User: Which sequence fits this backbone?
């Protein structure tokens, strides 16, 4: 699995957009970028995933650079409930490549 | 629809004692996973089941850890005997299938403290 690099922690004011970066310079052509988050004392929760096009759902937007070496997860209007650890994961679709390999993630603190 | 259910939520034991964790996956999910999460780290996969078959247990410490999923639904993870280093959160997850297009749903985890 390709490794990802994320900042250890970030702060965001409530109501503002939270932009969480992720570097995955060794990603291969058939690997996807996944984002999960883990709120304190809960299990991880799927947010979004993408291959090369930008993706948006009810939770967030995912922007992947054209060369696919980095991506940004955007929470458009962060709330206190978005305080969590966010994991960027590169993952294939089949076999052992489809395993979720978590790093240490980015701890996002949303403040008033 | 109920999510992944795990019990107990918390367990405190002394070293060398046995301990077991139980998981009930989302109904209809054929694939079940057990992860271990150490403090400050992301979850690490211990074992993956496809129905009742363990298809990836390469990260399971087999000298003291065992798991079963007898009827392809509920699963139990056991540690015997527990060591101090086993203190962690043990997470269960399930998905419709194992392929990467299948979202994994996680339970709340069992926090194990070994004294």
Assistant:
């Amino acid at each position: 699995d390709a490794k990802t690099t994320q900042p250890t922690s970030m702060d965001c004011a409530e109501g503002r957009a939270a932009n969480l970066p992720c570097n995955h310079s060794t990603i291969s052509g058939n690997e996807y970028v996944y984002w999960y988050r883990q709120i304190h004392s809960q299990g991880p929760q799927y947010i979004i995933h993408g291959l090369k096009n930008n993706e948006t759902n009810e939770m967030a937007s995912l922007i992947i650079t054209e060369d696919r070496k980095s991506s940004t997860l955007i929470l458009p209007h962060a709330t206190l409930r978005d305080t969590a650890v966010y994991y960027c994961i590169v993952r294939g679709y089949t076999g052992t490549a489809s395993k979720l390999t978590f790093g240490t993630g980015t701890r996002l603190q949303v403040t008033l | 629809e109920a999510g992944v259910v795990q019990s107990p939520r918390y367990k405190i034991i002394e070293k060398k004692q046995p301990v077991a964790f139980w998981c009930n996956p989302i109904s209809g999910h054929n694939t079940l996973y057990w992860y271990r999460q150490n403090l400050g780290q992301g979850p690490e996969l211990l074992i993956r089941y496809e129905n009742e078959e363990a298809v990836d247990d390469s990260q399971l410490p087999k000298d003291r850890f065992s798991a079963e999923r007898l009827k392809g639904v509920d699963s139990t993870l056991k540690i015997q005997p527990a060591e101090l280093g086993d203190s962690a959160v043990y997470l269960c997850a399930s998905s419709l299938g194992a392929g990467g297009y299948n979202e994994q749903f996680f339970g709340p985890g069992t926090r194990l403290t070994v004294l």
